[in-house]
Amino acid sequence: MKVIYTAEALAKGGRTGTAEALDGQGELKINLVKPKSMAGPGTGGTNPEQLFAAGYAACFISTMDFLAKQKKLAIGTPEIHCSVDIGPRESAPGYGLAVRMKVTIPGIEKAEAAELLEATHQTCPYSNAIRGNVAVDLSLAG
Q: Which fold has domain 1-46?
């Protein structure tokens, strides 16, 4: 792989610590807090699943925009409601993730949107990174 960008971050203290970007290109400096459902306070910071949901959704939209331009499709400003679930794995030790994305693609017909959605899922770096390991449920809004 020819590397075109490397993100760097430093995390301290796990789910009850801090995280910050180190590459000088971002404004990421956050407190990490466990959700209430994981015996944490649930307020005063963010958690890794929220960061993953935001990053995946943003990357997915960027990939979709790229593919739409290649196909000369005017898709306006797509939106993704991305949910990332975490829970104990049933068939192995440890925890696993599952992703649900409800995607709004304005300006194109539903069949065309469905085709673009699938092409995006086959191309997006996040989708490629987790394929075969994390269940991803994609749906079109509306």
A: N-terminal domain of TfIIb (2.20.25)
